[in-house]
Amino acid sequence: MSSRERILGRVRRALADVPQDDTPYGEAVARDYLREHGARSTEETVELLAENLADYRAVVHRCGADELPSVLARLLTERKAATVLVPPGLDEAWLAEADAARVADRMESGAHELDRVDSVVTACAVAVAETGTIVLDGGPDQGRRRITLVPDHHICVVRVPEQVVSSVPQALERLDPARPLTWISGPSATSDIELDRVEGVHGPRTLEVILVG
């Protein structure tokens, strides 16, 4: 008897006394929990997102759509970024004023090559206000997952208010579970047993979020 047959046999024995008309598993647990915590206006939702992003030590900027190219150029200059990694579907106008050399997202780019890039600029799929989380789904303006995990500096552009939701359940309704989802709550960080915080362990050391609206 294989391990698989042994395990399935135990499952069958455990379910032997369950009535045929018993409540299906999918309906056994009530799903009427809150979809969001409290009623907020659009402006209040965006404010909560900005507050929670900052609480996670992300650097938050705000601007209008026409100001975005100059803001991106300023942030890259302040970072002294000589190179910036650009997803294939990113709006070219966003970086029209930036001096940094563009680096294309290539399938053959390995970790060592990506580590030499100074900054990466992406859009996002959705942003969750209650958790201060940015979600990427590998879309054309976000690129592959690795380009936002290896470079040390990530600038993420969030379109306000259309890409901002209050809660995780609302975000999940917008996302395709078959896509490679990356959930980002602040810059990469971890702590040891003495709670000494170390940033940049498994992702960018610096996360800057631009709320454009």
Low-confidence stretches: none
Number of helices in the DSSP assignment: 6
Characterize the overall form: globular
Q: Report how far the terminal alpha carbons are from each other.
A: 63 Å
According to CATH, the homologous superfamily is: NagB/RpiA/CoA transferase-like
Extended strand count: 12
Measured as a percent range, the helix fraction is 10-25%
The assigned structural class equals alpha/beta
Mean pLDDT score: 91
Strand content: 15-25%
The domain count comes to 1
Using the 3D structure, state the CATH architecture: 3-Layer(aba) Sandwich
Radius of gyration: 22 Å
Spatial arrangement of strands, main beta sheet: 1-12-7-4-2-3
The CATH topology, please? Rossmann fold
InterPro entries: FTHF_cligase-like_sf, LUD_dom, NagB/RpiA_transferase-like
Pfam families: LUD_dom
Domain LUD: 47-212
Organism: Streptomyces asoensis
Structure description:
With 213 residues, this protein is an alpha/beta fold. The protein has a single domain, classed as Rossmann fold, CATH 3.40.50. 25% of the residues lie in helices and 23% in strands. The chain is built from six helices and twelve strands. The strands form three sheets. It has a six-stranded parallel β-sheet with strand order 1-12-7-4-2-3, sandwiched between helices. It has a four-stranded mixed β-sheet with strand order 8-5-6-9. The mean pLDDT is 91. This is LUD domain-containing protein.
